[in-house]
Design brief:
Layout lengths: L4 H29 L5 H17 L9 H24 L16 H12 L15 H31 L9 H26 L10 E4 L5 E4 L4 H10 L20 H25 L3 H29 L10 H14 L14 H12 L10 H21 L4 E2 L2 E2 L2 H26 L2 H4 L6 H16 L14 H30 L16 H37 L1
Antiparallel strand pairs: 1-2, 3-4
Helix pairs in contact: 1-6, 1-8, 2-6, 3-4, 3-5, 3-16, 4-16, 5-6, 5-7, 5-16, 6-7, 7-8, 8-9, 9-10, 9-11, 9-17, 10-11, 11-15, 11-17, 12-13, 12-17, 13-15, 13-16, 15-16, 15-17
Length: about 550
């Protein structure tokens, strides 16, 4: 295998389109949440107002950080309960032409938590487990509102940083509705129509039973797939309608559908950097964060491509996409906490699989999920400002707000909670018979399977090596808990920091102010993110993908 000019052009096109879309989507999102009523926003305003009227939401009512967090937690708890009940009763409900049975309590719990936390980890195969009603009313709805929830948290954090001695972080219900109605819904409709034009299935038919040329019966699944594929990509969800996700020919049939889905993975998440800059009154702040994220992604992409072209094979890859598109997708999806795949990660070279894992271990802040990547990297921004302040002996500040012990305490909780969850969960799995029972491989690759699973869960990513059997009480419950911690142990600290900084006075810039809108700060931020990830997970990575790579090199 050799890296070609065509491969290079495709990469440049993908990165270029994402870069071009960033200010466009960022500006559009700013208009949505600043109360602009022009164009498409005006057209969809009656739908927004109707939801407020039916739900009894007061559009002008503001919340402090505790009220915002409480409302968010209650909404997500109701979502988990509703989705669990729907799955455990689907056999008695309509839109189930294949007569799928009810799910077990532990699989229903894992799946409900997965989709509510925007993780979309799947311990099941969709075409053999979920009815059309469950796919649409349960999983599809959560694809929208879980993404809108992440975006709402970013808005609250940005308002807290921009506030001048105010507790007002906005209204969670208003942010949720506007994000869904004006952003996710219209973009999903456009993408779904484009995907249907490429052959992605969208119907309510029963499955087709056909005879192959060898005379063997083959079952061809059907269903409303295109609508769910669109929002799974745009909302950084990633859960596939079919078990093999975007490697399935009815979910991702052509090179063009592959490109559209690939771009959609990063589009909104990248746009959030520009949105943040506009909300805090400094485009440069957003551009520096975008540049830092893009530079880190290009770095890991280059390493993954080198490893795959040096040691990889076509095993586990779709011939219609090839090696480069599989690697590029793996980097996009693990950078954006999307979790969708168009190939088998377990079949990639050890370092390529390890780099995909490292992207998640860094906190899913290389663009990350919709909104989630931005409020996640802001924790690292505050940590970087704090460390820089210690080095020069000055009180650390960010956007004119002093960073003190309270903020740093919350930052450490938000940064370390997912890390601890990954390592503790992996330790429990490798030291118990229930955890080892699901292994598909032995040795370092077996450790990588388990480590990847808990990294994906706590990172709210949802991708997997696929060779680990996880539909068991042990993994469904433990990874479900990891997903909850990975989501809400970051959201709560982010909102608490927003509330704390929002009531502080804004200090005017001076000669000694550490600038956070420069290339130097972006480099320092990237270094802090890499150091935290490297120091925390290097021992575990050494026993998994790094050791497997060294063993592969000795054989070669």
């Amino acid at each position: 295998m050799a890296f070609s000019t065509v491969d290079f052009i495709q990469i440049v096109c993908a990165l270029g389109v994402v870069t071009l879309l960033t200010p466009l989507l960022g500006s559009y999102m700013f208009r949505i949440f600043s109360g602009d009523r022009r164009g498409l926003i005006r057209f969809l305003r009656p739908l927004e107002s109707g939801i407020y009227k039916i739900s009894g939401i007061r559009e002008d009512q503001s919340m402090n950080w505790k009220e915002y967090a409480k409302t968010l937690l209650i909404f997500n708890f109701i979502g988990i309960v509703f989705l669990m009940v729907l799955q455990m009763a689907q056999a008695s409900l309509p839109l189930n032409p294949e007569k799928f049975g009810n799910l077990s309590w532990h699989l229903a719990f894992n799946t409900a938590v997965s989709f509510v936390t925007n993780t979309n980890w799947q311990a099941y195969s969709g075409e053999s487990t979920m009815s059309y009603l469950t796919q649409m009313l349960g999983l599809g709805v959560q694809n929208f509102v879980s993404a809108a929830t992440g975006l709402a948290v970013l808005l609250a954090v940005a308002r807290g940083l921009a506030n001048k001695q105010s507790q007002n972080l906005g209204n969670f219900w208003v942010d949720l509705v506007r994000g869904t109605v004006h952003l996710l819904l219209p973009l999903s409709v456009l993408l779904a129509v484009a995907l249907m034009g490429q052959g992605v299935v969208q119907n309510f038919r029963s499955y087709d039973h056909v005879k192959t040329v060898e005379g063997v019966e083959q079952v061809i699944p059907q269903g409303p797939a295109a609508s769910q594929i669109a929002i799974k990509q745009l909302g950084s969800n990633g859960g596939g309608f079919f078990g093999t996700n975007s490697a399935h020919p009815l979910e991702n049939p052509t090179p063009l559908s592959n490109f559209l889905e690939l771009i959609s993975i990063l589009a909104i998440a990248a746009g959030c950097t520009y949105l943040f800059g506009l909300m805090v009154g400094s485009r440069r702040q957003g551009l520096v964060l975008f540049g830092t994220m893009m530079a880190m992604m290009i770095l890991v992409l280059g390493l993954s491509l080198w490893s795959e072209y040096s040691f990889g094979t076509m095993e586990g890859k779709e011939t219609r996409f090839g090696v480069m598109n599989t690697v590029l997708w793996s980097i996009f999806t693990t950078s954006a906490s999307n979790g969708s795949v168009n190939g088998t990660l377990s079949s990639m070279s050890p370092l390529s699989g390890g780099i995909a894992m490292l992207n998640m271990m860094l906190g899913e802040v290389i663009f990350g999920g919709v909104g989630a990547g931005m409020y996640g990297i802001l924790l690292f921004v505050i940590l970087t400002v704090f460390l820089a302040g210690l080095m020069v002996g000055r009180t650390p500040e960010y956007l004119g707000k002093k960073i003190e012990a309270r903020e740093i305490t919350w930052v450490m909780i938000g940064v370390l909670a997912p890390c601890a969850t990954i390592l503790i969960g992996t330790a429990l799995a490798v030291t118990s018979s229930a955890g080892l029972a699901g292994l598909g491989h032995q040795g370092p690759h077996g450790l990588s399977e388990i480590l990847y699973a808990f990294t994906s869960g706590a990172g709210n990513n949802g991708s997997s090596f696929g060779s680990l059997t996880v539909n068991s009480v042990f993994y469904n419950v433990l990874i479900g808990i990891a997903m909850l911690i990975g989501r809400f142990a970051v959201i709560i600290p982010a909102l608490a920091i927003a509330g704390s900084l929002g009531v502080k006075k804004v200090s005017p810039p001076s000669v000694g102010t550490f600038q956070t809108d420069t290339v130097l700060f972006g480099a320092l931020l990237g270094a802090v993110i890499l150091i935290v990830g490297a120091l925390t997970f290097f021992p575990a990575l050494s026993l998994g993908p790094i050791l497997e790579h060294l063993l592969l090199v000795t054989k070669v």
